[in-house]
Amino acid sequence: MEGNTNSKYLENICKDVRKNIVKMIYHAKSGHPGGSLSCVEILVSLYKNIMNITLDESGKRVDKFVLSKGHASAAYYAILSECGFIPKEDLVTFRKYDSYLEGHPSNKIPGVDVSSGSLGQGLSVANGMALAKKLDHKEGYVYCLLGDGELEEGQIWEACMSANKYNLNNLIVFVDYNGLQIDGSIKDVKDVDNLNSKFESFGLNVQKINGNNIEEIIEAVKIAKEKLNDRPNVIVAKTIKGKGVSFMENKIEWHGKTLTKEELEIALNELN
Amino acid sequence: MKSTRKSYGEFLVDMGTKNANIVVFDADLAKATCTVDFKNKFPDRHFDMGIAEQDMIGTACGMAISGKTVFTSSFAMFAAGRAYEQIRNTAAYSHVNINICATHTGLGVGEDGATHQCIEDIALMNVIPDMNVFSPSDDISTHKILMECLNLDMPKYIRLGRNELPSIYSLNDEFHLGGSHTFGNGIDGTIFATGSTVCTALEAKMLLKEKGYDVRVIDLYSIKPIDKATIIQCAKETNKLISIEDHSVIGGIGSIISSVLCEEFPKKLVKLGIQDKFGKSGKAEKLYELYNLTKEDVIEAFIMND
Fold it and tell me: Angle B197-210/B295-304 helices, nearest 10 degrees?
């Protein structure tokens, strides 16, 4: 564990990240609030507690992160800003024509190693990073955050087979299981049910946690590293889409929609 | 006679010995793509991703981002075709230093037929921003272009082939991104070619000489970026312009040359290539006859187009 373990401290960062998410999407007049708000605890735990984001002797970060669900870019940029990669004042330029803060992550953004957002592609990239670490006998872990709807993409399962083949026990994957996708509930669109047995049968260790609970996230990663370190790990993190803003929680329409000024004010009040 | 896929396999073994940073990916085609010798010699640096080309490109990108020198191998249909969007969004948009080596291009695939004959990979790769496309035509050009690729920190697609090709180049010849190679300085016409059609063009050049026409042949081994200056110079200095490629005329070198001419020096170009059709099974030589891609077709195109 690299960072601060005080969960009150981490919860306060979550609040700041959430405030920035709604502000960014308000200023951009577009964006993806639901899936950004659902994964805040995962990102904050990773960047502020779990990951070692210092550089090794070859100039690469010790731990790496791939945001496969790239539409959570507002959350990603907000946490990168908390870590000093992106100047705070740049966040309001999100999605604008004269900004580098693209709608979906681009590797031109400081702290971002690979572009993402076309769903299903990030786990393969994370595998490649984990494989390179193994080849070079380098320490550190590779973390990857997947959406739940994203699991409908076939490439994810190709990548699970690869993670198993190369026994990437330096890979820890999170699934932000918020249960909703653009066209409706995952159950209705194309259910990814029995997720535990799906991943297990592909050769990965699986844990199921409350993904909006920082202590559970940190504990699950600890277990993945210490007890379940024989195989690659998946942490299925049950989350609430739109978490923290009452009128957005579990509402499909907040997958990709901006806020009015009034809605922004209500959201910021709730997050205070 | 040697196929460019074979030259690719030999290059990998040669450079793999000298450079421990080189890793090779394949997708259950190591024998066909000729990476099998590398696999046997350096099993720890050869990754067979199974029949999963999209995953292969993504994993290779992750390796490249981590500092490895990466070569991926598959048939063009499954690299440029199946994994198109992974190449576009993960490799090219992130400007990953990856060498996507695609064997089995065009009708040269032969007996496997239309499903495996990729006649659109130049078009697919050319249209991706920041992508770079090479198309070697013999053993030496394959080695030298792959050597050049080691020095280029960018996404690259290298178009290789299954069919055996004669030696064209000598060890003194050089190959650069954005370059081309000119054979002869005839002013009666220019035959633009790439990959396996360069030798066809050179044979046609010799036969045309016997008929009293002095033409030059341009090997467009760098398809993207393309050597615009040479194309324009040939349009200005020579009479007739012909292009020949084992690829669709839509989006291939014929289209690319036309586009350059249209903007810079409008002039008629006769495009030999696959005329908006699928391929079919058969020996490559027979298919080249059927699809009008022989030296005789070049001569006919030259003489008929006044």
Answer: 50
